[in-house]
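User: Can you predict the 3D structure of HpcH/HpaI aldolase/citrate lyase family protein? Sequence below.
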Amino acid sequence: MTGIGETFSARSWLFAPGDSEKKMEKATAGPADVVIFDLEDAVAEDEKPRSREMISAFLGSRPVADRARLWVRVNPLDGPHTLADLAAVVPARPGGIMLPKARGREDVERLDHYLSALEVSAGIEEGSTKVIVLVTETAEAMFTTGTYKGAPRVVALTWGAEDLADAVGASENRELDGSYGFTYELARSLCLLGAAAAGVEAVDTIQGDFRDLDGLRRRAEKVRRDGYRGMLAIHPAQVDVINEAFTPTEEELAAAQEIVDLFAANPGAGTIGHKGAMLDRPHLARARALLASGGRA
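Assistant: Sure. Here are the predicted structure tokens for HpcH/HpaI aldolase/citrate lyase family protein:
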């Protein structure tokens, strides 16, 4: 499913600018499931070479086992920086790479070739570096979100609204009430469907207003109900809210266990009445998935 022979799950994905050792240190010390050192949007053009060196040195200072949660967002493949980014950071063994502005499966396959060569050169197990793909940042990419099934290394898909607005020439990507416009809600849905088709995790995009933690909680709870399994964060204050929102409650786990036990007690049943409702096999599948996400499979 992942191209690495294992499943992968993470609730919170916290960005930290790759040109600030202080911010990388703070992000790493916190409770984020994954920390993403950013070489793309957070780093000015002239600072990219120095930031590569900083990230490589920072990764190299950590025990290898700790680096599984330390990832790097490289620059897009259609620009001049990607190979230099990868050559600098892959030998330091990051847990994974975020690929921005992906145009489709071909970009992931190209990235896989680069990573394989660099892993072998550095004495790292080939195929061990995971990938999360930003799948909606260009207009072209909106039409390829369903192409990632079986793509090498990919463990998650996520989406972005800001670059997409630039790509289509929009002056704004939100409605007057603050909600995303239709095109961007479509991007969110296509990312979710693409991840489901590929059998990988769907990760929701950032919330820019890091002070609005109540709004973040409402949104995180909503997208989890929709099928998302994690969310990007731009500030450490967002991480605890995201982790809590994407962790099943004891009540949810108990209800799911009831459904699993009910079907286990009636193995030949296709549908079962339960608390005034009819349950069928899709209900059982969702209950099992919930238990798995809570570590109770």
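The mean pLDDT is 91. Residues 105-122 form the longest helix (18 residues).
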